[in-house]
Amino acid sequence: MRTTLTLPTALDQPLLRSVDLGDFRLPNRVVMAPATRARAAGAGLVPTDLHAVYYGQRAGAGLIVTEGAWVSERAIGFVNVPGIYSEEQVAGWRRVTDVVHALGGRIVLQLWHAGAVSHPDLLGGEPPAGPSAVDPREKAFTRSGFKETVTPREMNLADIERTVADFGAASANARRAGFDGVEVAALGVYLFAQFLNPRLNRRTDVYGGGRAGRRRLLLEIVDAVAAPWDGRCVGVRVSPYWDSGDRFLADASTLADYDELVTALNDHPVAYLHLRGPDLTPPDLGSFARYRHRFDGPLIVNNGFDRATANAAVESGTADAVSFARHFIANPDLVTRFALDRDLTDGDPATYYSGGAEGYVDYPVSG
Ligand SMILES: Cc1cc2nc3c(=O)[nH]c(=O)nc-3n(C[C@H](O)[C@H](O)[C@H](O)COP(=O)(O)O)c2cc1C
After folding, report:
1. Which residues pair with 294 in a beta bridge?
2. Tell me, which fold does domain 17-351 have in CATH?
3. Could you tell me which residue ranges the NADH:flavin oxidoreductase/NADH oxidase N-terminal domain spans (predicted)?
4. pLDDT value of position 10
């Protein structure tokens, strides 16, 4: 038998209170975190009706941040991930945003560029391009599974100019596709994290050198991405604590890079900062508080939260909202489950990145 509901207690959760993040007005603070699901299997990397069903099922989120979408063919670094650079992709996403809006939701598109963490198999045989010709020594997911990265080509100034333009065009496409805004994916091991990283960015021009040079590309792109929108409709997602291989280290120097970056974002039109914290369960609120003090705008925190820890993060003032990836994959009605204090379903990692409808749109809602 189900546990007895104590409705007033369950409903009186900080997570369920409305909030404004920049120009986004959220009825609750339960954000769907971006999650690549690799279901755009056609040659054109077009989102399908299955994507519309998937996001529609999750329209109860205070805000949906979609899976990362490629800003151009040059940005690709993972198999079957949709893009936002062709008219077919814009039309495919339009069906997604129409469904989410018809169901009362809000949805922003995450803009992604893999940079050097790609593979010639994904780029028509061409080597990936990155800040410098240094192998990030990561893995890229190709049609034949994970493959070791290679030494990339160093981006020249024309490549960088084109990348800024690609992000601007992708952001305008997102607006035409009916999104409420966009989020710049500056996390993990991808393009911006590569430029920020002195082990991978050995440039001596204005996009390298010291900290200010290494963060320059991201700040230029935030402005380019904001241009097609009238207000604060652009979020930025970073992961200062990311630690992988021997290139990405969450050491004191990296944290100092991010301290300065987050402070610098205050001078740009950013709707919210979306912070992925360390891989700790339960999450350590102190590691988020470091950025709370530095960033003047709204903060979404992520990584390993559940209902109780997320409510604590909002209640303590550490965050304005909390995002959930794995819980939203497996619980399309996550907000309802939080509100009614229902148990959560576990997801199946075997279908995270493959499986068509299976493990994608067939998770049950709570009875
Ligand atoms: C299957 C899967 C795909 C993901 N894809 C993305 C992505 O496209 N962009 C992104 O910023 N983070 C991505 N992430 C990271 C999540 O947004 C999130 O940071 C991580 O899962 C920790 O949050 P959680 O504990 O709520 O799952 C992905 C995570 C998972 C599990």
Report:
1. none
2. TIM Barrel (3.20.20)
3. 19-342
4. 73
